[in-house]
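Researcher: Watch the backbone:
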Amino acid sequence: MLNNAIEIREVEKSNDAQPRYEVYDTDTGTSLGLYDSMEKAEAVREKMVSSDNATKEGGYDADPAVE
């Protein structure tokens, strides 16, 4: 997974609904989840990036289910 491939996109259900935030993998075109706040989405994105970095450095993958 590339660090810059994981992004957060704002999505709306309808005109009067609150926006939601999608964590999206642009490399594979896969949605990785929808969140009610930017903070939650950013926390998930950061966790995925740090997990990927740990794997690349030969360390322990803190979140192996994401791969």
